[in-house]
Design goal:
Helix content is about 80%, strand content about 0%. It contains 4 helices and no strands. The radius of gyration is 17 Å and the shape is flat.
Length: about 100
């Protein structure tokens, strides 16, 4: 019960959710625009960077990670860093074939 009250105090309101939603829509449009532009090998990298920013917006605002204790933030960070390492290693494997 106390945990619910703690989260209710940290609710940012509808305005911030609308701004984050608009940001997600803008980044989605940017992803589509990047796919249409011929950036050669940087197309996938740019799309992944935009997707990473979008995922951080969802994590921090819609999943309320912004208001969680530092331990949760650390665990999520370790998981994301591990994921990025595997993606980079996969790109290197494809690059040097």
């Amino acid at each position: 019960m106390e945990h619910e009250k703690e989260h209710a105090l940290h609710s940012p309101g509808y305005g911030i959710y609308i701004l984050v939603w608009v940001g997600l829509v803008v980044f989605t449009g940017l992803t589509i625009a990047v796919a249409g532009v011929n950036l050669k090998e940087f197309t996938v990298t740019t799309a992944l960077l935009i997707a990473g920013v979008k995922s951080l917006l969802v994590l921090f605002y819609f999943m309320h990670l912004k208001y969680e204790p530092i331990l949760f933030k650390l665990m999520i960070s370790v998981c994301l860093i591990t994921f990025v390492i595997f993606i980079v290693l996969t790109f290197f494997d494809i690059l040097f074939r």
